[in-house]
Amino acid sequence: MIRLDELTKIFDTPSGQVVASDRVDMEVPEGEICVLLGPSGCGKTTTMKMVNRLIEPTSGKIFIGDTDVTKQNPIELRRTIGYVIQQIGLFPNKTIEDNICAVPDLLGWDRKKSRARAAELLEMVALDPGTFLKRYPKELSGGQQQRVGVIRALAADPPVMLMDEPFGAIDPINREVIQDEFLRMQGDFKKTIMFVSHDIDEAVKMANRIAIFDAGKLIQYDAPDDLLAHPKNSFIADFVGGDRTLKRLRLITVGDAMMSDPPTVRAEDTLADAAAKMEEHGHISIVMVGPKGRARGIVYLSDARGAKGRVGENHKKLPASINAREDLRTAVSMMFTHDETSLAVVDDDGFYKGYVTQRGITHLLGATYRDA
Amino acid sequence: MARNPHTAALDDLEADNVADGPPVGTLKAGVNRMAGATRTLAALAEGKAATAWRWVLLALVFAAGAWAWASGLLPSMYDLREDIVYLLDQHVRLVLISGGLAILVGIPLGVWLSRPSMRRYAEYLIQVLNIGTTIPTLAILALSMSILGIGTLPAIFGLFVATLLPIVRNAYAGCQSVPPHLIESATGMGMTPMQILMRVEIPNALFVIFAGVRTALAINVGTVPLAFLIGGGGLGELIFQGIALNDFAMMLAGAIPTALLAILVDFLLAQSQFWLIPRGVNPLR
């Protein structure tokens, strides 16, 4: 847990005093990612750098767990906090192995133990230890370097991590991959993380909570969905963007928006039965499932009504189906691609679980505005 | 990372010293020459044409030797062997003492100037040093003599000063060129200032520092023969006396060992530069 208590930083500059952080009060709960977000010069980086005392606060307190870090020895403090920066800062003179072991070496870990740990961490980010341990940073691509930068911060297993726009300098495709990789590792490690970003999409993707800063003040501190649904003022609304409701699509899984226990037909059913089932539910199509419940095809009401024969001979290929774990953004995109208003939802094994409709999605997103 | 720290270091160095071309020119030329030499050697090791050239070269050397012998040059040089050995010993001592002292003083001084606490004064001091490097080495020796009299001491002092400047300048420039984010990252992970200096700054500045040492010792070895003029001894004695007496053999007896020594020193430094600097920060590897 990281708790900031009335944290303030005032810089003396030749043109007068600048308040970089203005009485910031916030708490990052254990094991959560908190993204500090805001335009340049809003004080987010200053606020974060006070936590490992790269910047000394003017006033206020910082607690990690129950310890007031402003009273701790800064060198020892920093060894217990993982630190990742945008420029990565791998040491060009050291091999990847020695880079990863930098903090364990400072802490005087046993060499064998730290080297084994380096190999283990490299495997977690899908870099082959045999190939990479003895390489030098200049022999790695930008994306590979940043992966090493992240695992270097994790090497000594610090409970808290500070990340300063860690994925900002990586191309968009690699950034997505590294973000996903990092979220997967965070799922195992459950670190308490303060993460500075200026990218709202990254924040929405990574954060358990987002803190938006402006001119040194913490304006709003909320879960991503609340922030997007209920921006506190026009500054936040502008900052998160006019398409903020669309951004919320990312936060909701298909499983959440799905209608479960859908009506189904089997290959041996007659078309008349299928049509009756659709009319009963008010649907214009129905999914045909196999003997064990896998989605096999689709029958449209227009084809089934008044027709003779069995479903097995008259069904059409399922235009698209989506995994329940995907987010709604993917679902909507798929609907647009296939010109469909509903999608069949399947689980990892292809079993038909339910369906999502455009109407259902708009209704779900709208619910939070109606409540307010 | 947009900037390659190593080439950036060299670029910075170049930008720093537009005013005084020779040392930096030497530095870059040195790097290029060495890369060139490595390539040439590689090429030599291969083609058959190279083997032929080697024979031609050997034949030329043999012919020159035969001519030298026949004309009486070699025998008269051989007569000077005791002088050569004695003066070479003196010569090497001058190089080792003045060069060694310059390295021992110059690197720490340059590193110290690059500390944040010295930032305010460093640029001025470096400017003074830059002016210092423009003074011809002969003039430095003369100035040294006018203060310390004649003998070994003023010679060593003069050589020391002439050697010191490029070392300090490169040590300073090398440390300055270490990217700030490396230092931020080292600080952020909990290194003490001393650890940052020893584990991050110096290793990453090492190539530039080494380049300074190489330039400086090239100047040093090139200046040592002049030490004779202020009573410092060394192989310059044979060269200058040979010129004065129009004694070709005596002149060569001084000049050839001097030249060989210069080549040897540069070769040794180039080798240690190649092997001692970690691969990650060594543009040559």
Quickly give the CATH architecture of the largest domain in chain A: 3-Layer(aba) Sandwich
Mean pLDDT over the full residue set of chain A: 91
- CATH homologous superfamily classification of chain B: MetI-like
Rg of chain B (C-alpha, Å): 22 Å
Number of strands of chain B: 0
Strand order of the largest sheet of chain A: 6-7-8-3-9-10
Q: Strand percentage of chain A, roughly?
A: 25-35%
Structural class of chain B: mainly alpha
How far from one another are the termini of chain B? Answer: 20 Å
Q: So what's the CATH class of the largest domain in chain A?
A: Alpha Beta
Q: Identify the CATH architecture of chain B.
A: Orthogonal Bundle
Strand content of the residues of chain B, in percent? under 5%
Task: Please estimate the helix content of chain A.
Answer: 25-40%
How far apart are the termini of chain A?
31 Å
Taken from the alpha-carbon principal axes, the silhouette of chain A is elongated
Rg over alpha carbons of chain A: 26 Å
Number of domains of chain A: 2
Under CATH, the topology of the largest domain in chain A can be stated as Rossmann fold
Shape of chain B: flat
Oligomer: heterodimer
